[in-house]
From TrEMBL:
Homology family: Belongs to the DCK/DGK family.
Coiled-coil parts of chain: none
Residues the record lists as binding ATP: 8-16, 140-144
CDD domains hit by this protein: dNK
Residues noted as binding substrate in the record, renumbered to the chain: 32, 44, 55, 79, 84, 149
Protein source organism: Alkalibacterium kapii
Protein name, as recorded: Deoxyadenosine kinase
Active site (UniProt): 78
Annotated GO CC locations: cytoplasm
UniProt keyword list: ATP-binding, Kinase, Nucleotide-binding, Transferase
MF term (GO), any: deoxynucleoside kinase activity
Domain Deoxynucleoside kinase: 4-206
Domain of life where this protein originates: Bacteria
Transmembrane segments: none
Amino acid sequence: MSVIVLAGMIGAGKSTYTTLISNKLNSKAFYEHVDDNAILEKFYDDPKRWAFSLQIFFLNTRFRSIKEALVHRHNVLDRSIYEDALFTRINYEQGNMSEAEMTLYTDLLENMMEEIDGMPKKGPDLLIYLRGSLDTHLERIKKRGRPFEQIEGNPELLEYYKSLHSRYDGWFAEYDKSPTLVIDIDKVNLDNPGDEAFVMEQVRKALEKQKQHV
């Protein structure tokens, strides 16, 4: 039994990896709310109006998911609460959130993390970081085809993506809640059966190594 969380920028393929890994390990998959998120598209249209509301929405849903995941103890999450603050920090730095909103968000996040730390299982068994070039992410965002995510005619959104991408390695370097595994999405393509097998081999090795150190 294991709790695995996926991490990576928009367009990394987290949901696809979550489906693969959960199916192969016969575990439950937790997916981020996108299609039923009424705020997300509004955020892309008017970030300054909707950034705080969006981050609170995600914080709430990710908190609920990680609590349920740590109780069930056999699942895969396509994004977790651990990287949530990175998105919020960038929105604050880009002027989409006020200092008062950032302070409130930070206080709420710290309160939630304290509750997680008090649970019998305090963190995931493995975090998988899907790491790739900005071009790879942009290509996948374009292929996915959600209109509000596209950068054509929207230089501000491209700058947001650039800023987010430039900060992910720094966030990952500071992550300390669990063992980690990095998958290079510039080189790995899950459309190739051989790459599927390679990913699962890496995941199983990482989980086995984690069990040996418990």
